[in-house]
Amino acid sequence: KLKTIAGFDRIGEENAFAVLARAGELSAQGCDVINLGIGQPDFATPGHIVEAAVKALRDGEHGYTPATGIAPLREAVAEDLDRRHGVAVDPGHVMIVPGGKVTMFAAILMFGEPGAEILYPDPGFPIYRSMIEFTGATPIPVPIREENGFAVSAEEMLSLITPRTRLLIVNSPANPCGGVTPRAEIDRLVAGLDAHPGVAILSDEIYDQMLYDGEEHVSLLSYPSIRDRLILLNGWSKTYAMTGWRLGYSVWPEALIGYARKLAVNCWSCVNAPAQFAALEALRGPQVAVAEMLAEFDARRELVVAGLNAIEGVSCIRPKGAFYAFPNITGTGWQAKPLASALLEEAGVATIGGPDFGTLGEGYIRLSYANSRENITRALERMGEFLARGR
Ligand code: PLP
C-alpha cells in the first residue's frame, strides 16, 4: 500500500474549477449556462502580446532561460513597479514564475510547518488555506467583513499575531469580495508590524490595476520598514487577460530570493521562454487594451450591482476592485452553497457559494463579472426569476 505524506489528505481545491467543469457538462447536454463562476477575463490576450510570443518562437527562443527569468523581463518588472508605485526594486530580487499561484505556493512552503501559524483573509482565495494546511501549519483566518467594505482591518489582523505567527497574507484588491484596503489601514498594519519583526508578509497584488471609482492601489512594497520580509505576488493573468499563459512574478527580499531560485531549479527550471517574451511586450508595449478592458469591467460592475440590488432579499455593496461582486443573500432564505448549486442546475447561472472562500462566506455568493453585458443581464434576470419563484 502506498504511503504518501499526510499533507496530501489535507490539501484542498478551488471550487471554481469544479463549477467550470459542471457548467461545461451542462452545456454539452444542451443547457444554456451563463458562467459567472470562473475568475478569468473573458477577453483575448491583446494581439501585440500574442505576436511577441510568436516572434520569439520564430526567432528560436526554444531553450531554458535563467531560473529566475530572462534579464530584460525582470528589469521591465522592476521599471513597471517603479513607475506605478515609485519604489526602487532590484531586478535581482524579481523572479518570473509560472503563474501567480506559484509565488503563493513557494512563500507558504517556506514558512509553513507544524506549530507555525499563518494568517490569511477569510473570505479569501481558497488556495491560501489549502496550502497552509498542506504544510501542517495552523491556518488563522483574518475576518474580511462587509460592514468594513470588505477591507482588511489592521487592528483585527494585528490582534491575531502570536509568537507562533510566521507569515501573514494580505490581498488587496481582493478576491472574492472586491474590497480594497485604504492607505490609512495599510499604514496602521505596517506600523503595527514593527512590533513583530519575525513575521513575513505575502502581499497578493494580482488585481492591482483593477480599480474603480478613482481608488488608488497602495502596494506594500512602498513601505521600507517591511521590505526585508515582504514577498510580493503579482502577474499578468488578470491585467493582460493571460490566465492560460501561466505567467506571474514575485519580488523577494534578500534573505529569501536564493531559496526561491533554488525551488525553481528543483521544480520548474524556468518559465516557458516564448511566454516570457510576451510578458515583456505586455509591460513595455502599449497599455491601451488594459484601459479598455478596465472600462468594460467598470460598466459591467454597474450592471451587476444594480441588477443584484433589484432582486428581493439580495443586497450588494459596490466592489471597488477586481472583477467580482459578493452579494449578501441572507434575505432570500437560502444558504449560500445550495443557492449556488440550484442557480446552476435549475436556472443555468454558474456562481460560487461564499463558503468556498472561507467560513465567513456563508450568506454570500460570488459572481464574476468577467462576462459580456448581455450575458450578465440575462443571468440577473434568471436569478431574479428563480428567487421570485421560490417565494
Ligand atoms: N491570487 C488571487 C487573489 C487570485 O484570485 C488568483 C486567481 O484567481 C491568483 C492569485 C492566481 O493567479 P494565476 O492564475 O496567475 O496563478
Explain how this protein is built.
The chain is α/β, with parallel strands linked by helices. The protein has 2 domains: 7-44 and 288-389, Alpha-Beta Complex (Aspartate Aminotransferase, domain 1); 63-284, Type I PLP-dependent aspartate aminotransferase-like (Major domain) (Aspartate Aminotransferase, domain 2, 3-Layer(aba) Sandwich), CATH 3.40.640.10. Helix content is 41%, strand content 13%. The chain has helices at 7-10, 15-28, 47-58, 71-85, 100-111, 126-135, 154-159, 183-193, 254-267, 273-284, 288-309, 336-347, 373-389, and strands at residues 34-35, 94-97, 117-122, 138-143, 165-171, 200-204, 230-235, 248-251, 324-325, 349-350, 352-353, 365-368. Helix 3 (47-58) crosses helix 10 (273-284). The model has no long low-confidence stretch (mean pLDDT 96). The structure holds pyridoxal-5'-phosphate. Pyridoxal-5'-phosphate binds at residues 39, 99-101, 125, 171, 175, 204, 206, 235, 237, 243, 248. Belongs to the class-I pyridoxal-phosphate-dependent aminotransferase family.
Keywords summarizing the entry:
binds pyridoxal-5'-phosphate; alpha/beta; single chain; seven-stranded mixed β-sheet; 12 strands; 391 residues; three-stranded antiparallel β-sheet; 2 domains; Aspartate Aminotransferase, domain 1
